[in-house]
Specification:
By secondary structure, the protein is an alpha/beta fold. Helix content is 45%, strand content 17%.
């Protein structure tokens, strides 16, 4: 049932989405043309993908503690690291898109909800080397693999926080003067997603970017995305089907865009 509904949503998005040439907002046109549609190879891609390949070859087994909505692929608690790398990590195309978005924004702070094995965390850190990255993970054994990966790559500006997001996220947000960038890739449930979004609002500013993963994951996630788009503080959203970008640009006409990628 999930696959049928998801396929229908995908086809509907493809039908209604525009390319950069159907985008009349200068801000969004530039975002799409120079960042989202940038297909040029980059040295950092090779570097991080070599880390992914090592994880794909790791047949050690760990125990997963899933505090969110689970997986559409495999909900077994015992999983090989190689299987997690194959099915739970953001694919290269999406992880590299996140890299480009952060590289353009150059935030001072980054929050990632859902570390998994840490590959996306590394892309985020490489994109903004001077930023402090807070990556939150609910599963201790998964986090241990990610931390070992960070240590091996000598990445010291990533703070890995283990625990339920409800317990760990508020303190991090409250410790910041402002929130520059957050990627929500964990606990794919409507109420949780809206809660995390609302916690961010006191700290967002003109240049904040929030990204929500899997906005078509379920009917609940679709409803959460619709509520986020409608929020009065949100001025611009960009729906790329797999992820949704949220902006708070003052003076910008409130618009929602669907873009083909």
């Amino acid at each position: 049932m999930f696959n049928i509904r998801f396929a229908k949503d995908y086809l509907s998005h493809r039908f209604h989405a525009k390319s950069r040439h159907g985008t009349h907002s200068p801000f969004v046109y530039r975002l799409v043309d120079t960042i989202i549609y940038d297909k040029s190879p980059k040295k950092v891609y090779i570097e991080v993908e070599s880390i992914r390949n090592e994880l794909l070859a790791d047949d050690n087994t760990i125990t997963i503690l899933d505090l969110g909505a689970g997986s559409h692929v495999n909900n077994n608690r015992q999983k090989k690291i190689s299987d997690i790398a194959a099915h739970a990590l953001k694919p290269p195309k999406m992880a590299q898109l996140l890299y480009r978005l952060v590289a353009d924004l150059q935030p001072e702070n980054i929050i990632e909800l859902g570390t998994c094995l840490g590959v996306t965390s590394i892309y985020l850190q490489k994109a903004a080397p001077n930023a402090k990255v807070y990556t939150l993970e609910g599963s201790p054994e998964t986090a241990a693999v990610a931390q070992a990966t960070f240590d091996k790559a000598s990445l010291n500006n990533i703070e890995l926080v283990i625990g339920n997001f409800d317990d760990t996220l508020p303190g991090i947000i409250n410790s910041l003067d402002k929130l520059d960038f957050m990627f929500v890739d964990g606990n794919h449930q409507k109420d949780a997603t809206l809660k995390y979004f609302n916690w961010c609002l006191p700290k967002v500013h003109e240049d904040t970017m929030l990204i929500f993963d899997d906005i078509y994951w379920s009917e609940g996630m679709k409803e959460a995305w619709a509520e986020i788009k409608a929020h009065p503080q949100v001025t611009v959203t960009v729906d790329l089907f797999w992820i949704g970008l949220v902006f708070f640009k003052s003076g910008q006409a409130k618009e929602d865009f669907k873009i083909k990628i």
